[in-house]
Amino acid sequence: MKQDHFLVISHKGAGEYAPENTLKAIQKAIDLGAEFVEFDIHKTKDNKIVLIHDADTYKTTGKHGIIKNMTLSEIKKLDAGEGEKIPTLQEVITVAKNKINLQIEIKAEGLINNLVQLLHQENLIESSIISSFSLSELIKLRKKEPKLRIGYLLPEKMQNVRFIKRNILKATKNHFYAIHPHFSIVSKEIVEYSQNNNLTVNVWTVNDEKTMKKLINLGVNGIITDEIEVLKNCLRSISR
Question: Any idea which residues carry the catalytic annotation?
Answer without folding.
Answer: 11, 53
